[in-house]
Design brief:
The chain has two helices and six strands; from the N terminus they run ααββββββ. It is of the alpha+beta class and 136 residues long. It has one domain: Nuclear Transport Factor 2, Chain: A (Roll), CATH 3.10.450.240. Strands 2-3-5-6 form a four-stranded antiparallel beta sheet. A hairpin with a 4-residue loop joins β2 (54-64) and β3 (69-78). The radius of gyration is 16 Å and the shape is globular. The two termini are 21 Å apart.
């Protein structure tokens, strides 16, 4: 689910014609709201993404099948191949941007009992202060 999340977010941010509602299939709660707000803001400013975020390392920290079912997943990501460009094709990415970092995602399934495989959504995330992962 986390890999699909990154793919969908990247695709929606690259194509201004893709609806923000495509994010509903991979995100929920605060993560969905944050991604939709960022998308709408960037689109209003005439910005779009090129390139895709790479998931370099993914580590499941814990899983609970209580209601809601929840997994905690640490992801090392690499955005060195990602740019955000304006209407004129100029990059708006600052030189200070970190190209590699870690985020701890909460992945939940509120429909675990009825949809154990397809109900998972990334519902939250927070950056971690860790050294960049190997291979990045």
């Amino acid at each position: 689910m986390v890999r699909q999340y990154f793919t969908t977010v990247g695709e929606v941010r690259q194509d201004p014609k893709r609806p923000a509602s495509d994010l509903d299939a991979v995100a929920s709660s605060t993560q969905l709201l944050a991604q939709k707000n960022l998308l709408m803001s960037q689109r209003a400013d005439g910005l779009h993404q090129t390139g895709m975020t790479k998931v370099v390392k993914l580590t499941v920290q814990s899983v609970s099948l209580d209601n809601p079912a929840t997994a905690i997943v640490d992801v090392c990501w690499d955005v060195s191949g990602v740019d955000v460009i304006d209407r004129s094709g100029k990059s708006v990415v600052t030189p200070e941007r970190k190209d590699v970092g870690w985020t701890r995602f909460t992945v939940t399934n509120t429909n675990w009992k009825t949809a154990p495989t397809d109900g998972w959504r990334v519902s939250g995330g927070s950056d971690l202060e860790k050294e960049p992962c190997a291979g990045s």
